[in-house]
């Protein structure tokens, strides 16, 4: 369990003369569910982009699965749900199955076609997220919460060991948010999937994660969610710079239908 | 018409050209439309005009070019332009459609200047502007078939990658799909389709053949596969109608093809509407009883 899935050591990043990340240290151990919270513009998405190698840090060290980012090639170990998925073209002529299958294309590689067992994989994943009945439905015709599940399925279909979700609950109704957390907890417990969830929704996340990190340029807290809840007022007033109202979600996770 | 096709070689050529173009134009069109790049076809067609004009000019003055079909120089121009479009799209990330008027205006501008500089050609430039399916030559048909095979191969071999990039470029790139190469290859396919289609529908109407069947198919397609199949079906109907109209009525093939496509689109829209009203009525009746 000691193996680390993602670590950031003293990572700095700035756009021009605007500092975005200043000496950030963060670690995610195998099988852990880490919540990364912070206000808008705190550098959460930048941190993800750096960890995924689509931007390069100014200083510091990033490792993925104990390998330096520069030498890491096995991207199929990672599933990523971007915050931009909500803005996809809703008139796109594609079924849920077709969209989820596209999550396999990178791993399959050029010139290899989808075979029977690849499609079985798609069906299995759809079942895991509870979308089996809608596999042939046009993706634009699903509800917001269902679309979100479809995109999680796309990120899961190639069996990653780490799933990174960037603000996935934006624009999704409360009920779907609850179902979403239930699904994540389920995946986390059943499959031992390591999870990194980026969100600005501080209330719900503490109920579900193993550890929580609070970011605003620097890491202001990194530890146990209970401790976070106890010290919340203090942490948040430092990280957010003012008192924050927190909506609490106290429900137990509902079992998946 | 079948007798005529058996009897006359020019009819066989027209039929082959029509069927090939009626497959590759809408197939490439589906990817262009879902990427919101429908007008690229139009822009590249106009660049092809300047390439054709350049080819005619060279034919007039350089002996080496006398045997070279001006469509080849046209294709060279549109290939260059299609690569330039990709570059412009990267340059203006938030104004991606800006690439289209830049290329379109540049293409016409250069074409018109070249035509005027040549002080008239022996060949009718209007033939390139409006196309004529019955005038496809023997050497051109070989070329159209070659282009057809190449384009189909590109689409079949890279179907997965093209789909993933069209749906969500960011995730596709993250999953390891080589965006640059695939996009470049696709640009080459688009340029080839456009030049090959010019003989049949003409520069001014190429974009109609590339986008109208797709527009109709998007109305009814639930999946990407269906979108491809329906647009090819619609395009085939349009192209064959164009061929028939050109042969029997001596109408312009390009114009007929585009008009039939518009008619198909309206029919699909109408049928959809009737279907909706009908379903509502049935549901209403079921409620009453």
From TrEMBL, chain A:
Q: Tell me what organism the protein belongs to.
A: Paludifilum halophilum
Could you say which protein family the record assigns here? Belongs to the ABC transporter superfamily.
Report the protein name in the record: ABC transporter domain-containing protein
Read off the InterPro entries from this record. AAA+_ATPase, ABC_transporter-like_ATP-bd, ABC_transporter-like_CS, Metal_Ion_Import_ABC, P-loop_NTPase
The cross-references to PROSITE patterns, in alphabetical order and at most eight, read: ABC_TRANSPORTER_1, ABC_TRANSPORTER_2
Q: Name one GO molecular function term.
A: ATP hydrolysis activity
The segment(s) forming the ABC transporter domain are 6-241
Looking up CDD domains in the UniProt record yields:
ABC_Metallic_Cations
């Amino acid at each position: 369990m000691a193996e680390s899935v993602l670590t950031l050591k003293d990572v700095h990043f700035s756009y021009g003369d605007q500092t975005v990340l200043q000496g950030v240290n963060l670690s995610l151990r195998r099988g852990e569910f880490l919540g990364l919270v912070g206000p808008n513009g705190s550098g959460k998405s930048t941190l993800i982009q750096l960890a995924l190698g689509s931007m390069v840090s100014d200083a510091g060290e990033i490792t993925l699965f104990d390998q330096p980012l520069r030498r890491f090639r096995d991207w199929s170990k990672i599933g990523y749900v971007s915050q931009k998925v909500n803005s996809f073209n809703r008139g796109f002529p594609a079924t849920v199955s077709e969209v989820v299958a596209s999550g396999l294309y990178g791993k399959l590689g050029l010139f290899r076609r989808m075979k029977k067992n690849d499609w079985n994989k798609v069906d299995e994943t759809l079942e895991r997220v509870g979308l089996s009945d809608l596999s042939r439905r046009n993706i634009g015709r699903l509800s917001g919460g269902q679309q979100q599940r479809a995109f999680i399925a796309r990120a899961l279909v190639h069996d990653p060991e780490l799933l990174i979700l960037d603000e996935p609950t934006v624009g999704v109704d409360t009920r779907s948010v609850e179902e979403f957390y239930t699904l994540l907890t389920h995946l986390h417990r059943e499959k031992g999937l390591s999870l990194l969830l980026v969100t600005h929704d501080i209330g719900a996340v503490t109920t579900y994660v193993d550890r929580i990190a609070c970011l605003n340029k620097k890491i202001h807290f990194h530890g146990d969610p209970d401790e976070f809840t106890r010290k919340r007022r203090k942490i948040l007033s430092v990280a957010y710079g003012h008192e924050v109202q927190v909506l609490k979600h106290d429900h137990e996770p509902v079992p998946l239908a | 018409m079948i007798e005529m096709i058996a009897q006359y070689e020019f009819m066989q050529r027209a039929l082959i050209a029509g069927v090939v173009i009626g497959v590759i134009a809408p197939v490439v069109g589906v990817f262009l439309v879902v990427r919101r790049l429908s007008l690229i076809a139009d822009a590249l067609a106009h660049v092809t005009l300047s390439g054709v004009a350049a080819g005619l000019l060279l034919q007039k003055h350089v002996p080496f070019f006398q045997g070279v079909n001006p469509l080849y120089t046209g294709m060279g121009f549109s290939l260059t332009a299609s690569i330039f479009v990709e570059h412009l799209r990267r340059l203006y990330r938030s104004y991606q459609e800006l690439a289209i008027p830049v290329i379109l205006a540049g293409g016409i501008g250069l074409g018109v200047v070249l035509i005027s500089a040549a002080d008239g050609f022996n060949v009718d430039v209007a033939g390139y502007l409006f196309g004529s399916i019955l005038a496809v030559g023997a050497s051109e048909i070989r070329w159209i078939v070659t282009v057809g095979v190449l384009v189909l191969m590109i689409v079949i071999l890279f179907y997965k990658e093209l789909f993933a990039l069209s749906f969500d470029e960011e995730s596709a790139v993250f999953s390891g799909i080589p965006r640059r190469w695939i996009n470049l290859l696709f640009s080459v396919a688009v340029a080839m389709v456009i030049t090959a289609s010019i003989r049949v529908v003409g520069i001014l109407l190429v974009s109609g053949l590339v986008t109208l069947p797709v527009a109709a198919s998007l109305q009814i397609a639930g999946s990407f596969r269906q979108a491809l199949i329906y647009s090819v079906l619609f395009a085939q109907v349009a192209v064959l109608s164009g061929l028939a109209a050109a042969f029997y009525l001596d109408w312009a093939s390009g114009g007929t093809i585009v008009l039939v496509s518009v008619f198909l689109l309206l029919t699909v829209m109408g049928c959809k509407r009737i279907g909706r009203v009908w379903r509502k009525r049935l549901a209403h009746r079921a409620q009453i009883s």
